[in-house]
Input
Amino acid sequence: MPSVQPPARPGTRRPGVRGRNLSQRKGLAIASLILGILSLPTAGLLGIGAAVAIVLGIVALVRANKEPAVYGGKGMAIAGIVLSGLSILLIPIMGIMAAIAIPSLLRARVSANEAVAIGDLRTVVSAQLTYASANGGFFDSLECLSAPTNCIPDYPAAGPTFLPGGIATASVKSGYTRTFYPGAPGQPTAEWQSSVSPTSLAAFAYVAAPEQPGVSGTRAFCADASGRVCSTSSGEMPPVFDGVCPIDCTDL
Output
């Protein structure tokens, strides 16, 4: 009568199955595969992770070839090595792409910041001209433009404001420092004395300069009571005299 072999205990070799271990060690191969997968979207985990994955994969592969009954995971080790190698090859390509993309993004940011600054300068000029029509022909501070009832005598409480509060109170916006320069005080005639703002101005200038020249913007801008909007290529705050933009400021 043929003998019946008892079932093998876990971790032991079954008679007749030569060189096979039911609990092969695959830790290094698994670690290599995981690091290899993570290396692809992260530029080789700064190169260090990819190098570690390759070393672990090679060690796992050598052990699996020498002692296949104890060590397994050859496929995972090979995949980890291949993925890590690809990630290392991608590093210079990603560097070239970054070198092309980053300056373009910075230029786009500068252009956007400058467009916002120019738009705000034009808004201030338009608001001042409209305010002057309700203030005996005189300009005023930005605070008065955003709250004319506090400045113009007998201005109707339901009357419109002339400037959004966000522009009137902004000192830094979209990478640009904003500065309002009042000109000479207004000199209303006796007839208009009681109907115009006591802080009336005969002139004004509004300047926007990059907070970080060359980074947040490359040009500075100036607008004044004449309706002129101009720029300077230096990026420095244009000098303003008596509420008038400098002559060498280039008109937009």
Notes: The longest helix spans residues 74-134. The radius of gyration is 37 Å.
